[in-house]
Design a protein that fits this description.
Elements (H helix, E strand, L loop, with lengths): L5 E3 L5 E3 L1 H9 L4 E2 L11 E4 L2 E4 H20 L13
Antiparallel strand pairs: 1-2, 1-3, 4-5
Length: about 90
């Protein structure tokens, strides 16, 4: 399970999941966590000097999941099905 938390450092490196959750303690202004509820809204999250929408933050989580799956399966993934609970 990957927590939906995103953190960005000063060099624009993106951290997702447990590492981002740990960074929230030391870098709260560079980390976003409760952003899924803002999907489809105009709300922006300020991470350092970057303004990001919930969709952009979610894309970092999905990208991380894709990369983890490719390593685990040892194959390239081109498509995915994302289901959303009601």
């Amino acid at each position: 399970m990957t927590p939906s938390i995103v953190s960005i450092d000063e060099d624009d490196n993106v951290y997702v999941g447990k590492v981002a959750r740990e960074r929230k303690i030391t870098h709260p202004n560079m980390t976003a966590d409760v952003f899924k509820r803002s999907m489809g809204t105009k709300k922006e999250f300020l991470l350092g000097n970057k303004k990001l929408k919930a969709e952009e933050l979610s894309s970092f989580v999905i990208k991380s999941l894709k990369e983890d799956a490719e390593v685990y399966l040892n194959t390239k993934i081109d498509e995915a099905i994302i289901s959303v609970p009601a």
